[in-house]
Design brief:
With 318 residues, the protein is α+β, with helices and mostly antiparallel strands. The protein is 40% helix and 24% strand. The protein folds into 2 domains: 2-75; 142-294, Rod shape-determining protein MreC, domain 2 (Thrombin, subunit H, Beta Barrel).
Amino acid sequence: MFRLTEGPQRARTGVQTERFTLGPAVNLRRYRDIAIVLLALAVPFWFLRASMRDPNKPVTGPDRIVVTIAAPIQFAAATLARGLSGLFGDYVYLVDVKEDNKNLAAQNARLREQVHKLEALEPENRRLRRLLELKQNLRSDVVSAVVVGKDTNQFFRVARVSLDKARDIAPNLPVLAADGVVGTTLKSGKDTIDVRLVIDAGSGVDIVVQRTGARGFVKGMGDEKYQCEVQYMQRNDEVEVGDLLVTSGVGRRFPKGIPVATVTEVVKRDFGIFQKVVATPTVDFSRLEEVLILTSAPPEEAPVPPVASGAPSAAPKK
């Protein structure tokens, strides 16, 4: 009987002991929460009271304690606020810098494009200024044209030029460029003209050596080297490699003094009356873009002044 009642008695005793043990713990937690709430309310009150105190009055003990405690907290809070403000300001600054860099990069790209366009226009402007200067020096009626094509087969060396409007252009009229003689007109359509280049085997220009005045006749060789042969240059005529050949003005076909070619080879033969002279045209036909067509015969006058920075000068006499 004793063993049967011992178990329930022990169980009841354990429950009572547990209840007796948990009671003070619950009360302690309740008092702790109340203390935390009162402290949370009192601390801001004392901080506010200390900040609103008249600075002319002496600081009391509680206020001194509050100020002493609040000083490091305020310093840490101010430091943290300054750090966060600086970080945010740096972020905004970097965002603005990125946007500025983007705008500057776009502006730089536009400026580079404009510079490239201006650099591309500079050679054209220089070429057109020289052509205009040549036109002003010529005392003949001229028509300007633009090169639109070339035909350099094994039989002919012809360039096709286009006029600004339809004109009646006769054949065998002189065609000039800023660097010198281009050739003569061959046949014309409404607004296009075929020009026989000076390197064509069927062309010919009466010339003189600018340095010595020796006479000759430049005839195209019709080869792929874009060269001309100087015919009827006598053996005793003084001519050297590098000499500039200009138009003689004989027959008033070409104006006098226009560059034609530069001597590149001189062979004085042991027999015969004439020497062999080979020359290269002063005009670069691979880069020819604009020409002038003389529609009236040039008057008898002094040689046309050379265009600035145009045809190469004659080689000095050795």
